[in-house]
Amino acid sequence: MGRGDPNLSNRKFPFDLKESFDGPAEKVLAELADQLMAKGVKKISGDVVGDDSYFPQERYPNGWEIDDMVWEYGAAISALVVNDNTATITLTPGTTGEGVPVSVSPRTPDFAVDNRVLTSAANGKADLTLKREPGAHLVILTGTLPEKSAPRKLVLGIEEPALNAASLLKAALEERGIRVDGGVRARHEAIAEPAGVAPTVLAVHDSVPLRDAVKLVNKISQNLHTESLLRAAMRKTGTWNSPDELMKFAGDFYVKVGIFPGDVIQTDGSGLSRHDLVTPRAVVTLLRWAQTQPWFESYYASLPVAGIDGTLEDRMKNTPAAGRVHAKTGSVEHVRAMSGFADTPGGRRLVFSFLSNNQGGKNHETTDAMGGLCVAMIEEFNTVPAKRSREHQQPR
Q: N or C: which terminus of the chain has fewer CB atoms within 10 Å of its end residue's CB?
């Protein structure tokens, strides 16, 4: 049974400059299978069930687009998350004119691949098209990949996470000689246990500390993990029956921290929904409130650092902002955002929020402008006399 832990994968923790991995993508499930072996389990007479009933079923929040659902950044939400609810298709070029071999990892029943990609001349360019209709089992690949080019990896979102997890666990059990007489299935609705009968627990995986989970989310901008953490927080207070009730949980929190009514309109946890709206004032209010909390240093350490790591690794390098801006980035089509903290050489910490909407120009122009604003903040506020600091702390 999944309880919202988004890190059933092969990632190493804590995050240190870059993501690192160890073992197969389904490593945690393999470890659970090892625990069953150690308990002497030889045979399972029934099915392997992927139970994600801990959260009400809502795979895709309102406002996500069809294209989002195909790729890793829009993977289906579930209380049972294995390998970020994704599978990777790897295409490796062969000899010119021949087909391109394809592999899928980890193996999944979620989709089958119709591979029509050919190897083109070595001096050509890759030209790949992937098509998967919502709810369709078939992924169609067409196009060309140049001979001698590096393998191309396409990371797809899984549409049926609980069923996928059950399939991976069944395979891990059978690889260890544990016989499974049944099949695999998913359970989305909780069932009541008989009175006085407690379930027998044979294998458990403990989640990483919350600070490590949040650090991964912020450093690489992991949408699914954000959705999982929001639902896990809500589940601690009780259950909910609709997305509106879940969003009210978040809204009540914003009121407590002093955010103005109407400054946040939220329909998901990650910000991927095109129905989400937020003001810079709300973001600054939230960040200033965070500074007063005992866990702030862990949160601050979770943010990407300009020119150093995460989504800011390649931005503001060799500028006064490098190493001094800790901020969360965000982007969807025609939207770019960056909010966080800028530390001046003189010891001041500035709070900022830059949001760019409906942009028609090139994305790098907006991100370059935001980087320029960060440099200007650090240079200007480092020279402003201390008596003006109160004025300049106001959101602008």
A: C
Instruction: Please state, as a whole number, how many other Cβ atoms lie within 10 Å of the Cβ of residue 46.
Output: 10
Burial environment of residue 72 by CB neighbours within 10 A (0 to 12, 13 to 18, 19 or more): buried
- Alpha-carbon torsion, ordered 171, 173, 178, 181, to 10 deg: -50
| 6 CA to centre of own chain | 9
- State the DSSP H helix or E strand holding residue 103, giving kind and residue range, or none if neither: strand 102-105
* Other CB atoms within 10 A of residue 89 CB: 19
Cα-based distances in Å from 358 to 283, 313, 366: 19, 25, 11
Q: Which helix (H) or strand (E) holds 280?
A: helix 280-290
List, edge to edge, every strand of the sheet that includes 335-343: 325-332, 335-343, 349-356
* Token output for 380: 């200007």
Q: Taking the chain (396 residues) in consecutive chunks of 10 residues, what is each chunk's mean pLDDT?
A: 95 94 96 96 96 95 95 97 98 95 96 97 93 94 96 97 97 97 94 80 94 97 98 94 95 96 96 96 98 98 98 96 97 94 94 93 90 94 55 44
- Give yes or no for a contact between 81 and 161, defined as CB atoms under 8 angstroms apart: yes
Angle between helices 210-220 and 223-237 (to 10 degrees): 140
